[in-house]
């Protein structure tokens, strides 16, 4: 049986279903069918910043300001993370200034719009809730009611990437070039 590292916390029956889909080469087909209108227009760091700030303004207006939001090509490979939130502290004159940053793995440029929203919501939730606890997930589902389904589907996609390879999402930059 393939190692389903992205689904390690799920029940055995769920992992068995995913394993069958992988064996039958149907996992990618299932994801492509579910997310057939996957394209989003967020291609640059500026567009990502505007997107995340719009979500922040809708749901977390009073939270700490963000100084930077950017795609990061090193995230998935180096830190085994899909997004990060951090506070960068710098001394300016006699004062200590801190700035909040969010970085999102570049794989979200070509992933379905729901996956991008899920990771943006996840990282924004860390502005108020540091730990992955009940309050954190309540905030995530407040900002995106389908948060848990999107997270699961993203884990399915990561499993597909790990075991089979990339998918040509409809409308993604690579899809037009491959004739998809």
What does this structure look like?
By secondary structure, the chain is α+β, with helices and mostly antiparallel strands. Helices cover 47% and strands 16% of the residues. The chain has 8 helices and 3 strands. The chain has a 3-stranded mixed β-sheet with strand order 1-3-2. The radius of gyration is 18 Å and the shape is globular. The two termini are 31 Å apart. The model is unreliable at 174-180 (pLDDT under 50).
Quick tags:
180 residues, 16% strand, three-stranded mixed sheet, alpha+beta, 3 strands, single chain, globular
SSE string: HHHEHEEHHHH
Give the neighbour order of strands across the main sheet: 1-3-2
Please tally the helical runs, counting DSSP H or I stretches of 4 or more residues: 8
Strand percentage: 15-25%
Which bin fits the share of residues in helices? Answer: 40-55%
How much is the average pLDDT? 87
Low confidence ranges: 174-180
SSE layout:
Layout: H1 12-23, H2 27-34, H3 45-59, E1 66-72, H4 75-79, E2 83-92, E3 95-105, H5 113-125, H6 134-143, H7 147-163, H8 173-177
Parallel strand pairs: 1-3
Antiparallel strand pairs: 2-3
In brief, what are we looking at here?
This protein is an alpha+beta fold and 180 residues long. It contains 8 helices and 3 strands; from the N terminus they run αααβαββαααα.
């Amino acid at each position: 049986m393939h190692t389903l590292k992205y689904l390690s916390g799920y029940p055995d029956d769920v992992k068995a279903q995913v394993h069958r889909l992988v064996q039958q080469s149907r996992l990618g087909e299932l994801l492509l069918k579910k997310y057939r209108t996957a394209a989003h227009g967020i291609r640059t760091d500026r567009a990502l910043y505007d997107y995340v700030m719009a979500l922040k303004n809708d749901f977390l207006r009073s939270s700490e300001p963000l100084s930077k939001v950017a795609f990061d090509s090193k995230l998935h490979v180096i830190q085994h993370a899909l997004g990060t939130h951090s506070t960068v502290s710098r001394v300016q004159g006699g004062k200590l200034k801190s700035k909040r940053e969010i970085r999102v793995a570049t794989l979200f440029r070509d992933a379905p719009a729901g996956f991008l929203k899920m990771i943006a919501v996840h990282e924004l939730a860390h502005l108020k809730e540091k730990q992955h606890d009940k309050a954190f997930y309540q905030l995530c589902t407040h900002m995106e009611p389908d948060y848990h389904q999107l997270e699961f589907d993203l884990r399915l996609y990561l499993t597909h990437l790990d075991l089979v390879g990339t998918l040509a999402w409809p409308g993604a930059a690579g899809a037009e070039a491959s004739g998809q």
